[in-house]
Amino acid sequence: MRPDVEAWVKRAEEDLFTAKALLDFKKPVPWIVCFHAQQSVEKLLKAFLIKHYRPISKTHDIKSLILACAEIDGEFLQLLEEEVDRLTEYAVETRYPVLFEPTLEEAKEAVKLAEKVREFVIPRL
Q: Which residue range forms the structural domain that includes residue 63?
């Protein structure tokens, strides 16, 4: 794996590790778990684009990243079928009080989605 791609994957792995670790806290905070799950997915998708020398934009929009990846490998559209793109709402809205407060169940589901994306993307890098 190229060093630039590897650096993005490392950060994605750290975000996923953090999300999972935070779930194990005595009193987990769902919004931060969701945020790190979203960040992991965003970075994995950007790593794939970087591997293929595609430009990456400063976006948190998972759907647009999946569509960009699908231009290279159409199988990425499976991630839309899995509704991975719903993680986008955790990128910004959850960081501010009152806008959106995910539940613990939503946080657990966000981590599962991030794990699915990891399993899907890593072999393609």
A: 3-124
d(CA 54, CA 68) in angstroms, rounded, equals 9
Contact 46, 29 (CB under 8 A): no
DSSP assignment letter at 94: G
Give me the average pLDDT of each 10-residue run along the chain (125 residues).
96 98 95 97 98 95 98 98 96 78 96 98 98
Residue keyed to tokens 């929009």: 61
Number of H helices, E strands in the chain: 5, 0
Task: Supply the pTM of this predicted model.
Answer: 0.95
CATH number where 113 lies: 1.20.120.330
Q: Indicate if the alpha-carbon torsion angle 74, 42, 47, 21 is positive or negative.
A: negative
Are the C-beta atoms of residues 115 and 79 closer than 8 Å to each other? no
Which two structure tokens, joined as six digits, stand for 61? Answer: 């929009």
